[in-house]
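Hi W.,

Here's what went into the run:
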Amino acid sequence: MIDLQAETPEKTEKIKSDLLTVNMGPQHPATHGVLRVEIKTDSEIVAEATPYLGYLHRCMEKHSENLDYRGVIPFVDRMDYLGSMSMEWGYALTIEKMLGTEVPRRAEYIRTIVGELQRVASHLMFFGTYAIDLGAFSPFLYAFQDREDILRIFEELSGARLLYNYIWIGGVWNDINDDQLRRIAKFCDTMEENLKKYHTLVGGNAIFIGRTANVGVISEEMAYRYGATGPVLRGSGIDWDLRKKRPYGLYEELDFDVIVGKGEKGQVGDCWDRYQVRVLEMFESIKIIRQCLDGIEEGPIIGKVPKIIKVPAGEIYMRTECPRGELGYHLISDGGKTPYRLKVKSSCFTHVSMLGEMAPGQMIADFVASIGSIDIVLGEVDR
Amino acid sequence: MNAKDLSTLAPLREEEPLTFGKWLKNIWTAARTVTKGMGITFKYVYGVKPVTIEYPEVREELPANSRSRLFNDVDNCISCMQCANACPVDCIYITAVRRDKDAPKIKTDGGTAIKLDLKQYTIDTALCCYCGLCTAACPTECITHTTDYEFSQYTVTEMKYDYLAPDIRAWKHRIVDK
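Here's what came out:
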C-alpha cells in the first residue's frame, strides 16, 4: 500500500473537505422537544452548531397581561411541564412578596414536600432520557416506573398528573392527608434503594463513563460567562444553590448538602459530572422530604388573600431554584387586577445558548450527549 | 460562511497511547461493569409484578378529585358568572335573564335563592385547560370536575356542551350521584 502522506506531504495538506450542513431537529428524538440545531460537520466532527428556538413559543408572557393573578398559574404550569410545581411556587412567592401575604406553616411544609418530589420526578426523567440518548433503554423504563408513584401522589393531591395548578397564592389548594404522607415516606425508602441500584447500573457502567467523561466540558469560567445555573453550574464545580444561599420557604431550617461536580471520571464540568450532580441531588431531595414529613404541623393551608387580587404598584424580581436551574420572575404592576408585565428568566434558555460553544470539535454522537446533559425543556426555553 | 479550518480546533480528548496492558484492562472493566448492570436488569425478568395495564379492557380508577370533564348542575346554578370570570381561557358562555316577579320562588339545594333564569350554559371543552379555577370560584358548588375522561369526538363543534340539554342533564345521575 502506498503511503500518500509520506510521499507528498504538501499535496495532502491542500485537500480540504467541504463542510456539510445538517439540520438536527425540530423533530428529533435526541433534542428533547422541538429544538432545531443547524450543524456544520466535517465527516463526523462538528465544526459549528447554531440552535434555533421559537417552535414552542406560546406568548405566555403576553397572555399573562390579560389575566388576573390567579389565572396566570395554569399558564405558568405549561412552561416547564416536567417541573410544574416549582414553576408555580416561584410565581406564588413573587405575588406573596408583593402582597405581603403570610403563608401558613403547614402550607410551607406541603410546598417543600411537593417541590422536592417534583425535583426527584424531573431528575428521574433526565436519568431515563439521558440513558436513551446514549443507547441504554431499560433505565428509562425503571425511571418512569418510579416517577409514576410521584405522579400518582400529585394526582390525588391536585387532580392532575402534569399541570397541577396546586400551589396557589397564599398557600396550596388541597390538604394532604396522613395516608398520602405515609405513602410518600414509603416512596422515599424504595426510591433510595432503587436509586443506588440505578446509579450502579448506569453511572458505574464503563461504556457510559466512556461516552460521558471528558465530553462537553463546561469550564468554571464558561459557566460564569453564560450565566449558567442549577445542576449545570454545580456540575462545573461551583458551589451555588439558591436554597442555601438565598433561602426561601423552609429551606433555612432544613439540613441538606449542595452537590458539586468534582471531575471523578474526567475533567470538572463534563457530562458525567452533570449526570452525577443530578443523581446525588435526588438523594438530598429525599433527605429534605424526610425532614419535612417529621416536622409537618397541623393548621390552615391557605393564608388570607383578598378575593380579587390587586397587587400594589411596583416592581419585583424573585428567583427560585427549580429542577433545571434558577427561575426568575420579574413582575411590574401598575396596581391593577392584571400584571403590567411579567418577564420570566428561564435557566434552560441560557443553557441552550451554551451549545454553540460546546459543540466545535465534538463528534456528532458526543454532541447528542452534550444536549442531553444540560437537560432542557423546550417549553421553558420558548415560553 | 467561510469554511473553518478544523485543524485549529483543539480536540477535547487527549488521546493517551494505548498499551497492551491498558487494552486488556479496558476490556476487563467494561466486561465487569456491564455484567454487574445486567445482573440488575435480569432481576426484573422474573418476580416483578407487571406495572402496565391493558387499557380498553382494564381501566384505571382515577382519584375522586381528578380533574376531567366539567359538569354543571344547572338546577343549582345561580348564574353569578364567577366561573366565566375566573376562566383563564374564556371557554364558559352564560346567558341569563332576570326572573319574573310573579314566577314561583326557587332555591338551590344549599338554600340560595335563584334570581336569574339561566338561558344558556355552554362550555367549549375543546378550549378548556382543566385548571379547575371555575370549580374553586363557584359559590354553590354546582360546577364540578368529574372523573369521566373518555369523551373524544369527530368534530370540534361536538365538544361544545350545552348543559341545559336533557341528555347532558342526565349525566348528573350517571356521574355525580354515583
